[in-house]
Amino acid sequence: MLKPKELKLNSPPASLQALATTARIIPRSEHTISRSGISPNALRVLYRLREGGFQGFLVGGCVRDLLLGIEPKDFDVATDALPEQVRKLFRNCRLIGRRFRLAHVFFGRDIIEVATFRAATAPAPGEEPLPDPDAEGEDESQIEAQDAEGEEPEPEVFGDADTDRLFDKTGRIIYDNVYGTVDEDVWRRDFTANALYYNIADFSLWDYVGGFEDIAARRLKLIGDPATRYREDPVRMLRAARFEAKLGFELDPGTSEPLARLRGRLADVPPARLFDETLKLFLNGGGVRSFEVLRERGLLAALLPSVDAYLESNRGAAAEKLLMRGLANTDLRVRDGKAVTPSFLFALLLYGPIARVIEAAPPERWHDVATILDACDRAVREAQEHILIPRRFSLGLREMFALQPRLEHPRGRRALRVLEHPRFRAAYDLLLLRVQAGLALQERADWWTRLQGVSPEERETMTAAADGQTPRPPGGPRRAARGRRRPRNIGSA
User: Fold this and answer.
1) Does the 14-230 domain belong in CATH 1.10.3570.10?
2) If you compute the radius of gyration of the chain from its CA atoms, what whole number of angstroms results?
């Protein structure tokens, strides 16, 4: 089956015909991956597959990260065992997906995903563009993506029903329900750095496309013709940006060249997938750099046009400073293992478009909660023309913004009720960012900071003293209606 130093490949698709047809086998003595760095649960899965008479490989980003000295976030396994055969080997196994079956092997909260080798152009695990809400054990992020009004329209498809391989009119793969072999599986992977296979049988690496050298050179290169691969799956453009930001890799010239002319193809991607990719871009600990790369590559205009348009017409404005500070804080929370939420992420991203809508209203209405909520709804609707934002996250965003006037103008015991609001902490964090960007008063943020740290008795004293004594913003009106002082406009620079 295996010849020394090479493995014969099946015929790749036309877009990959110019590539080499043999795999380089890198023995354990020539690479740095050790079993001590691999999840014990992943090793259990690999060894059980081998004991059952099947091939078992670690694949994808975990192999890349191990070579880079980075602790992988998760471990994916590829095998020649069919999903039903995997389930027979593991009592703690559940099959998910209907268009292409995957096996999840559970070890408490740790999940090892096992995928059967796929034919050349099948989408990668987790990249199927149309998630199934009724499939058994669907991934949580996909379930969240369904939590919106309406359903994704089924695209017009083209293909041979006998092969179960379908494309839309732009050449994008809708789904490919074809199992394959290891030498076919490599061709449906995206980047050379993600196409290495770690073989548990002898601890060797199988490299079909020069990924070993590209990782050493910190080079990101698409497998095959870049323009064709982007058309097959436009999300690969966002993945290129994400890996460039996350890993600090340099894009190969051939990989970067088509981005500017093909970025419009992202409009063909179902919004549910773009929501998932947006979370991967900004909630992985490298959100600031991801944002910078998206702007540099012109991809932000395709992903979030309203955000890009606002930032381009208001360069250096307070809203941009707030966004970048907020992303930096989010990166720190991710690195410290703290919770982050999509609601807060979209509050940051959409801050500029929300402020634009508020400032289009008459100034006397800028501080009304109804005006603020209307601006939130309009900004979310604009974004949802491209990205699906599940309702529970858009509602969280609305509540954070609606609380801003109450945070800037606490009224006696009502302030204590604000303190108990489920969205208080997120709204308070947003207030702190507004202070740092010059959009709210420092003393008001300090007041809420103190209020959270004092005893219940002292809280009563503070709220009583604050009632009707809100500091007047510099240059603001002396009195608001009914003797109250107005808070600053959310979007004022």
Assistant:
1) no
2) 26
